[in-house]
Amino acid sequence: PGENDINLIVNSLDLQNKEFRNYMMEFKNCKFYEIDFQKSVWNIPANRMKTGIIHRVPLTNQVIELLEKTQ
Questions:
Q1: How many CB atoms lie within 10 A of CB 10?
Q2: What is the DSSP string of 1-67?
Q3: For residue 39, how many other CB atoms are within 10 A of its CB?
Q4: CB-based contact 9:1 (threshold 8 Å)
Q5: Which of 12, 13, 37, 63 could make an SS bond with 59 (beta carbons 3.0 to 4.6 A apart)?
Q6: What is the pLDDT of residues 54-70, one digit of tens each?
Q7: What is the pLDDT of residues 14-67, one digit of tens each?
Q8: CB 30 within 8 A of CB 1
């Protein structure tokens, strides 16, 4: 997603998803290929994580819907 898309998504979110809220800064580096739309999961690549392990962040239906609109 582009920067304007990210701002739209972040500003539109119901930030009930605590785990997603924790990764909002990282979300600006998100690429569409990292999103598993069918499983509603964002797979953050290991090379961007301090632990060096891929991290899976569950996404709400609201986030998925917004991402689908910007894709």
A1: 16
A2: --HHHHHHHHHH--TT-HHHHHTHHHHTT--GGGEETTTTEEEE-GGGSTTSS-EEEE--HHHHHHH
A3: 12
A4: yes
A5: 63
A6: 999 888 887 888 888 87
A7: 555 566 666 777 777 788 899 999 999 989 999 988 899 999 988 888 788 888
A8: yes
pTM over 0.90: no
The size of the chain, in residues, is 71
Question: Contact, 54 vs 45, CB < 8 A?
Answer: yes
Residue 52, amino acid: G
The identity of residue 30, as a single letter, is: C
